[in-house]
Amino acid sequence: MKPVSGRVPFSTRKPLWEGMTHQLTLLRKQAMLNLALAGVLAGLAPMALAQHQQGGSGNAPAGAQTQPAGSGAGTPAAATSAIPTDPDAQDVAVPDGDWLSLDQASQAAFRRMAKACGVGFDGGPQVLANFVLTRFADTPALQAKDFVALVHVVQFSGSTVGTDCWYVAGKPAMVPAPSVRSGVLAISTGTRIYGSRNVGVLFVHLDRNTEGFQQPGDIPVVYRAIPKKKTPINVQNLLGILQFAGLQGKETRSYWGHGLIQGVPAPSDITVFGVDSTGTQNKEHLVGKKLLIDNEGNYYWDASIGVPVTKLTSLQYSDTNQQFSPKVINNQTAYGLIDIYLFNLIARKPVDLKDAKAGYYPRIVAGPGVTGHPGDRFMVGGGLGIKEIQVFAGIAFTRADRLDPTAPANTATPQITQFYHSNLVIGLNIPVFQAIKSKAKK
């Protein structure tokens, strides 16, 4: 490949001032190229740092749950006895209106939803969707394109919780698959929504011992929410690159309640839970399980680490992650890449970066080496892959020195000029957190 500086025959003799002009032109072009390359990461870094500082660390809030044994995929975990405490906690819903009266079919559906934690049975999604639409009918948020209701269905045994399940019911664009569509709403048992700012809470308490309570409003139950702003996942990955390069009674009745969470940021983690102070000394205790919702939308770009691979023996397969990865990540050859989902950008269909299928989408990748000065090394190419392996291929440019062919032959001090030589590079795109973890093991 011809050097960017161009080649001039050594036999050509030019005045000294022309050689100096040529050298200054090369330096100016090189400075502009270095500035452009630095902008790939350094230009985005202030924005990333600002969002990071405003959104916090991006860690899940206290009270985050793990999957209970025997639960369905995405089902919220069984609660501990601890009630989440946070200065940002807000009371969202209390028992509403009159006692809940349901027809036999709806009552059976709700009881099944409290027990089965699923929406794949006849009648359940329709009953739940109609209930949500009816209860929030007088709420402007219902008309919003990003409306989502977090629904807690609880089957009591006397005055204690028997079984309970959380459901997400919202506009289809806000509810990831797997979900079941019922009218204008999609129903899911997952713990993810796509960046909604209009989030409601609805609870249905079935067959509770209500002896001593004249109206539902007399029952000391309140649902609270803690919305915590966090750093977008792609900005976290970009910052990661920077880090890398460095209980029965006499009478049972049912009732319900609903409300809206105020000031929901996006992206955010939302913790929702019910507390009940009925019983000895009116001490508060959790009503069934609490719910942690990952409220984050989709994006057109991400950040990753590109690791060149020259032979298959340098790869390893992880049974835990079910992915191929490099055995060793060498900082001297790795690249900090910006991944741009160009086709998704054109089609206006952003990518869910937390979905394993995100790697299926072709993308443009570009960025400098993670070590050295900006402009010393950079790579431009494309990336694609499947769940098990993410690959990239492109042209790598490396800056080198040589004698200036335009310098006069009788110059006592050799004149050095810089140029870029290029080569094909193939390797693996790996998540930033994986690269940092691998580096920490060294």
Detailed description of the structure:
With 442 residues, this protein is of the alpha+beta class. It folds into 2 domains: 16-43 and 299-440, no CATH class; 60-67 and 74-233 and 247-295, no CATH class. The protein is built from 7 helices and 21 strands. The protein has helices at residues 16-41, 45-55, 104-116, 124-135, 233-244, 342-347, 432-440; strands at 90-93, 95-96, 147-158, 160-170, 180-182, 185-188, 192-193, 198-209, 221-229, 252-260, 268-276, 285-286, 291-295, 301-308, 315-318, 323-326, 335-340, 363-368, 377-385, 390-403, 416-430. Strand 18 (363-368) and strand 19 form a beta hairpin. Helix 2 (45-55) packs across helix 5 (233-244) and helix 5 runs parallel beside helix 7. The longest helix has 26 residues, at 16-41. The protein is elongated and about 105 Å long.
Keywords:
7-stranded mixed β-sheet; alpha+beta; 442 residues; 6-stranded mixed β-sheet; single chain
Describe the global form: elongated
The helix-and-strand class reads: alpha+beta
Unreliable spans: 1-19, 55-79
Discrete helix count: 7
Biggest beta-sheet profile: 7 strands, mixed
